[in-house]
Amino acid sequence: MKKLSELIKTEYDVNVNGIKINSKEVEPGDMFVCIKGVKVDRHEYISEAINNGASCIVGERDLECSIPYIKVKNTNYILPELCRKFYDFDRLNLKIIGVTGTDGKTTTATSIQYLIGMDKCGYIGTNGVSCAKFTKDSPNSTPDPTFLYKYFREFYDAGCEYVVMEASSEGFLRGRLDDLYFAAGGYTNITWEHVNVHGSFENYVKCKLRLASQTQGKFIVNLNDEFASKFQEKSLNSLSYGENPVSDLWIKDYTITPKYTNVTFVYQNEEYSFMSPLLGKFNVYNLACAFLICLSLGFDMETLIENSINIDVSGRLEMIDLGQNYKVMVDYAHTPNGIKSILDFVKVLDINRAIVVIGSAGERDYKKRPVMGKTVIDNADYAIFTYEDPRSEDPLDIANQMVSEIEDTTKYEIIVDRSEAIKKAIDMASKNDIVLILGKGNETYEKLKNETIYFNDIEEAKKWIIERKNREEEKVTN
């Protein structure tokens, strides 16, 4: 609890129990801040906030209010400052690590948490919020300040010294990270994504570059990515990783197997070879980024290698083995580059056919949909296109856009219902085939037109694997 006068210059002397920007979440004693979003102006919900017990309102308009109302020039701008003060962030002395990029943010950030230790390092990102003492869901990969600074405080109270977070382009665009500076940061790669949100690819890249300019410590650059020089220009002090021997952390060699990856890094003229549980070439790069960020913070290579064997990233290359004679894998890949990387990895496995279940999110970049569809068909044997968070769009329209540039119509079908699509893929799998369910990872929801429903690809896959086994066993019995 804080006094209002501790948070903002005012003559009002009321208690503030929390800070909210969603009127439906307001509880008695909360401050309600009327930020402006792309589609919503929170000033329209002041009455609901008051009815729910708000103790004060912060807004931009001239208006009369039945409870203390403080007018400011820009609510979006002042929100992080209010949250910093409410949660005493400047006293916490947490070292914040940021990871950005088109693909690989979750794996890289999660790897950093494991390398440092979950007892010392909290995580905020696509897979929620976690440390050694708690795990919870997060409303966004990069949450708004009302959640972000709350999580920082909870990590500090749990004994954490570091927090690693996924710093998304939209997080920068929405001003969620404006008030933050990072002890270390890094990026994985940049490819076409989120153009619908940013208006252009150039604007998307500019938002990604913000992490480099807001990093006070070392910023880690992928030297094999075409945008490396742009990040180096924005950074005060950069280090690099990649397959180029001039990299500060040189990926000298790697051997990919179906169960592990043998990796050889060279750092400060010393060669280190070890076995990683992360699979695929793309994960060698993600791991290199994570290692170099930790090394820049003062951790030693031997400790990082020792801790790396425990890395476990939920919903990323997650194999589901219930004793079936075919493979089933769930992954979050939802960009053309991510999809291609997954299908390239699958080629090292001992499989016959690759069957892919995939969709594309509604109200997102529609231009990438035909590219995604063609990428799947060019690199897999068969595809079932389905819905994936269609939101207000017609899921059949989205699927038709995904297949619009595919000439061979015998290599795919459209099944709008995602559960039925997963069932069909599992039913058609023969011995040594692999079913790849892409796009959602371990997420537990589907955003439909008028509601958000519970849905989890891993649980659905397990359900239909068991259902198929029971059918086959019953058939043998009869």
Break the fold down into its secondary structure elements and pairings.
Layout: E1 2-3, H1 4-7, E2 15-16, E3 18-20, E4 30-33, H2 46-51, E5 56-59, E6 69-71, H3 75-86, H4 89-92, E7 95-100, H5 105-116, E8 121-125, E9 128-130, E10 135-136, H6 145-157, E11 162-166, H7 169-173, E12 184-187, H8 195-198, H9 201-213, E13 219-222, H10 228-234, E14 238-242, E15 249-256, E16 261-267, E17 270-276, H11 281-296, H12 301-308, E18 318-319, E19 327-331, H13 336-346, E20 354-358, H14 369-379, E21 382-385, H15 395-402, E22 412-414, H16 418-428, E23 434-438, E24 445-447, E25 452-454, H17 457-477
Helix pairs in contact: 3-6, 5-11, 5-12, 9-10, 13-14, 14-15, 16-17
Task: Walk me through what this model shows.
By secondary structure, the protein is an alpha/beta fold. Helices cover 35% and strands 22% of the residues. The protein folds into three domains: 2-75, MurE/MurF, N-terminal domain (Udp-n-acetylmuramoylalanyl-d-glutamate--2,6- Diaminopimelate Ligase, Chain: A, domain 1), CATH 3.40.1390.10; 89-308, Mur-like, catalytic domain (UDP-N-acetylmuramoyl-L-alanine:D-glutamate ligase), CATH 3.40.1190; 318-477, Mur ligase, C-terminal domain (Protein-Tyrosine Phosphatase, Chain A), CATH 3.90.190. Strands 10-9-8-11-7-12-13-14-15-16-17 form an eleven-stranded mixed beta sheet, with helices on both faces. A six-stranded mixed beta sheet has the order 18-19-23-20-21-22, with helices on both faces. It has a four-stranded parallel beta sheet with strand order 3-4-5-6. Strand 24 and strand 25 (452-454) form a beta hairpin. The relative contact order is 0.08.
